[in-house]
Amino acid sequence: MKIGKDLVAAAATPMVLGILAEGESYGYAILQRVSELSDGELEWSDGMLYPLLHRLERLGHVEATWGASPTGRPRKHYRLSASGTAAFAEQRRQWRVVSTALQRVWSDRDGGSAFAGAPALGGA
């Protein structure tokens, strides 16, 4: 299934903040985690991820440090800052509202079976 660009773009910031809330990471590992979390349905490119990471860094939500990879090449590691943790919490609140509204509208259209057996969106 192809996920629309608008939906991918809307979910990108909370997805990256959520991954970094799990712990420090680097670009390739973040791309792998996105794929893993979406069961392979979301395949982001470097060209999508790195501008987002740089924007989050400019906003002060992400801090970056250079370190060596196992091959010795320099690798930039990203982690949430205090403001990034707060931004992630706010993103979760906003997505919970959107998710609840979608669940309600879809449930109203099909008699309540839209999410039977499906995990709830939005998280806790």
Give a summary of the structure in a few sentences.
The chain has 124 residues and is an alpha+beta fold. 56% of the residues lie in helices and 13% in strands.
Spatial order of the strands in the main sheet?
1-3-2
Total helical elements = 4
Give the fraction of residues assigned to helices: 55-70%
Shape assignment:
globular
The helix-and-strand class reads: alpha+beta
Strand percent estimate: 5-15%
Instruction: Using the CA coordinates, give the radius of gyration.
Output: 16 Å
Uncertain spans, ≥5 residues at pLDDT below 50? none
Terminal Cα span: 27 Å
Secondary-structure element order, N to C: HEHHEEH
Give me the count of strands.
Answer: 3
Description:
The protein is of the alpha+beta class and 124 residues long. It is 56% helix and 13% strand. It contains four helices and three strands, in the order H-E-H-H-E-E-H. It has helices at residues 5-21, 27-37, 46-58, 82-110; strands spanning 25-26, 62-68, 74-80. It has a three-stranded antiparallel β-sheet with strand order 1-3-2. A hairpin with a 5-residue loop joins strand 2 (62-68) and strand 3. The two termini are 27 Å apart. 12% of the residues are buried.
